[in-house]
Amino acid sequence: MKYRQLGDTELSISEVSFGTWAIGGSWGLSNDDEAIKGLHLAMEAGVNFFDTADVYGSGHAEELLAKATRGKEDDIYIATKFCRAGDIYDSKTYSEETVRQYCEDSLKRLNRERIDLYQIHCPPLAILKDGHVFEVLDKLKAEGKIRHYGVSVETVEEGLFALSKPGVKALQVIYNLFRQKPAETLFPQAKAAGVGILVRLPLASGLLTGKFTETSTFAADDHRNFNADGAQFNVGETFAGLPFTKGVELARELAWIAEGRGNMAQASMRWILDNPNITCVIPGFKNERQVADNLGTSQTPSFSGEEWARLQTFYEDRVKDYIRGPY
Questions:
Q1: Active site residue 175
Q2: Taxonomically, which superkingdom (predicted)?
Q3: In the chain, which end has fewer C-beta atoms inside a 10 angstrom radius, N or C?
Q4: Exactly one of 3, 56, 102, 327 is catalytic; which is it?
Q5: Per-residue pLDDT averaged across 71-81, rounded?
Q6: Residue 160 contacts residue 189 (beta carbons within 8 Å)
Q7: Quick check: 112 and 73 in contact, CB under 8 A?
Q8: Are 68 and 83 spatial neighbours (Cβ–Cβ below 8 Å)?
Q9: Domain assignment of residue 162, yes or no
Q10: Domain carrying residue 317
């Protein structure tokens, strides 16, 4: 496993890390035993960073991480998120009393004394501009409840504003072959500010595995079903904001990236990690097989400059006009 520094913090984290939304819920059927086995395999391979949130399975993902990392609290870093258990538009959700309770609840589920990275979970820009939540996070950091804090953002504008706050040490961003906009200005400015970049949904909810067809279906409790058009939350969180059938079509046109690179998933994440401004990718998983496949990304050959240019042109000409939702 290869490691990269999280911005200007002291944390050196695995370039292939993992997110736990899928094992918590909202990605169809999952099995806790399989999830735990996957977590153990990842750690055995050198993964030392996992991302979760208090709303992933109503805290279940945090509990799974606590079970899997017991006795390894000093070696395995955990990032979790808060605010979406409440009304994200209500300033009371970000009050000291409320945030402190969110933090204490996560600490209890994680069975830890400190959260390594505490992230505001896709808040509205108005909340970020209000600024009070950052004062609360500074207090929690001073008390030793959290080591560092960051923001998970939906748009470049939100990310750029978050960079203006000196305590922000990480941005979590949707970035993949179907969603390249953040690389233009946000990533270089984050690098200059000493802020790490965590890339979520690197496979565009599975589109970039190349395994779906236009007739693929998803379970009722899978966000790829109930949020395919943004009915529950930002449409960009599902299929990178692309209509599903268009995404399948575009993924088929990208099949060439897998040549000499194992498969489309590994190639897609290799492309992300080829960007020097990225700290890590955090793909999801449900079992050991998916973990093992994602781990292969680190050994996948990089893209040439010519290939990079081809992929950027593809995004500009074939993809970006179909993306829905603010980004």
A1: no
A2: Bacteria
A3: N
A4: 56
A5: 96
A6: yes
A7: yes
A8: no
A9: yes
A10: 3-322
